[in-house]
Amino acid sequence: MVDLQRIVDDLALRLERPLLLEDGRQRVVAYSEQDGPMDDVRRQSILRRHTTPDVRDFLRTAGIHEATGPLRTPGAPELGLLPRVCVPVRHDGLPLGFLWFIDAAPAMTEPEIAVAAETAPTLALTLFHESLASELASRRELEAVTGLLLREPDADRTLIGAGAFPHGAPVTVAVARPTAGEAGETLRLTLERGLLALRRRLIRHHPLHLVRYDHAVLLTAGTGAFPEEMHAALGTPVLVGIGSPRPSLSLAAESYEEALHAAEIAAKVPEFGRSAEWGRLGVYRMLSGMPHGNLHPGLARLLDEAQHRPLLETLEIYLDLAGNAQAVSRRLRLHRTSLYYRLRRVEELAETDLRDGGERLSLHLSLKLARLSGRYRPSTLPVDTESTGQ
Question: Which domain holds residue 258?
Fold first, then answer.
């Protein structure tokens, strides 16, 4: 099959006139050397690879989507648009694209338009085959990435063999979970569009992606991740979890599971911010796989009463700072006498002894588990970098 670019170049040479080919969504597919009149619309289309919505609306009104043969479209100086000749490209009646000529200096003759129209069937067939190949490639990639994350054998070989991922490169997986709204088709399409746009920008990192019903997955070659780029591209507020890099694509599922946990923790521990890296979650890495109901029995009683929240926040800071009363008082802007009073109340109500190292450990881990379960959400506590590893 002759490629589109060669057809376009050959036609431009025969007509001695530059041209541009768009697909059915008016995205630029190919264009010849632009050595003739050029307007702002042609220039921006080539730079951006698509036309702007106002230009698309204008041309739609001119009837390009209903046309079955060549037609002339008027100019629109307010849009920076010169008059054009449009040759619709159809296959079995299905609109697949548009062939565009600027109809100025000089205007196209009827014989020239006829030559362009004769090329339309070849362009249509080529576009049709390329769309089938693209759809097939996309479906195979989707199946392979899904299999990869489900630990199916040889999924990595499929992707590497197809040239979608470099052989021998490490892989890093990131997960984006929307912060609001219900999962559904609209959300899925929003995530899909955002990831496709992001993949074009990250092409040097050989990105792959997958959209699930409630989260999006991005795999990239190398040890870096791109959380800020994901936030910017996805078009909806998300929390990003990042798994630790793995040395080969076959181990991507491990990084994916870590990224899922990291995103879940970011949702439950807001102090981590919009993005959380698995390798920097500290104690939460260990706790993420533990049953959330295994709490210190005395602490569980305090969690059920809203009036005890200041006591729990004081206790958590006290444990985060390894019992350093001076540092705790400074952090809370609390007199040390008041601090000691709160700690005694915790001991009384929870029936515990803060001088016992085992009790302190149990209480500390229980507070972190209660965060993950949603039973405990402190009002203003920052994540302590010494206890979390950040």
Answer: 156-281
